[in-house]
Amino acid sequence: MSTFEFQLHFQLPDGEADPELWLDALFEAGCDDALVGLASHGYLSLDFNREVPTAWEALQTAVRDVKTAIPEARLVSAGPDLLNLSELAELMTDRLAKVTRQAMRKYAKGEVKRTATRFPSPRVSGGTPLWHADEVLAWMMENRKIQATPEPAQSLITLASAIRMLNSTKEYHQSRAAAPELMQKAEQLLVS
């Protein structure tokens, strides 16, 4: 068994936007391994620390447990996935080995000479670029930029990859439902 730490963010059903109403139901449904955040009206965030055999099982059972307690809840996103450089440094420092924000900035700008491969490109550009956590974690391990034991590092990479797939699949299905013809055109553009 492994312990997986991750976050799930849900939108609550319309008309029942007070998340405090759901606390007992969440506990009874199996979310006793999560801290529940009630910060935004109409939304619920859960910070899980789930012990299961695989990362995917951690996500699958957590989503199932929340949907059991709140059937109309809609998954908004899971994390860690898209993070800025400071958040990436914090994630690695908290879970693997100390990494500074300054080091992350140097890696991202290509200012470090001894690397086997180029730093991953951001998935969201702009004022605050965002990277997929799994890509950066894998790059850090491949380029020996963190001195962490392989098992915890690989476990975190696997979890971040599963979270990325969950978020990507959710976005894909929402986009496809909202504009099926446009999605078909976009798919053709990417294939050709």
Notes on the structure:
- Keywords: DNA-binding.
- This is DNA-binding protein.
- One of its GO terms (molecular function) is DNA binding.
- With 192 residues, this protein is of the alpha+beta class.
- The protein is built from 7 helices and 6 strands; from the N terminus they run E-H-E-E-H-E-E-H-H-E-H-H-H.
- The strands form 2 sheets. A 4-stranded antiparallel beta sheet has the order 2-3-1-4, covered by helices on one side. A two-stranded antiparallel sheet has the order 5-6.
- Strand 2 and strand 3 (43-52) form a beta hairpin.
- Helix 3 crosses helix 4.
- It is globular, with a radius of gyration of 18 Å.
- The model has no long low-confidence stretch (mean pLDDT 91).
Features:
DNA-binding protein; two-stranded antiparallel sheet; alpha+beta; DNA binding; DNA-binding
Order of helices and strands: EHEEHEEHHEHHH
CA radius of gyration: 18 Å
Kindly estimate the percentage of residues that lie in beta strands according to DSSP. Answer: 15-25%
How can the largest sheet be summarized? Answer: 4 strands, antiparallel
Distance between the termini: 43 Å
Main sheet: strand order: 2-3-1-4
What is the percent of helical residues? 40-55%
Task: Enumerate the spans where pLDDT stays under 50 for 5 or more consecutive residues.
Answer: none
The beta-strand count equals 6
Determine the number of helices (DSSP H or I, runs of at least 4 residues): 7
Keywords: DNA-binding
GO molecular function: DNA binding
Protein name: DNA-binding protein
Entry summary:
The protein has 192 residues and is α+β, with helices and mostly antiparallel strands. The protein has helices at residues 23-28, 55-69, 85-95, 101-109, 133-142, 150-178, 180-191, and strands at 2-11, 34-37, 43-52, 74-79, 82-83, 131-132. 26% of the residues are buried.
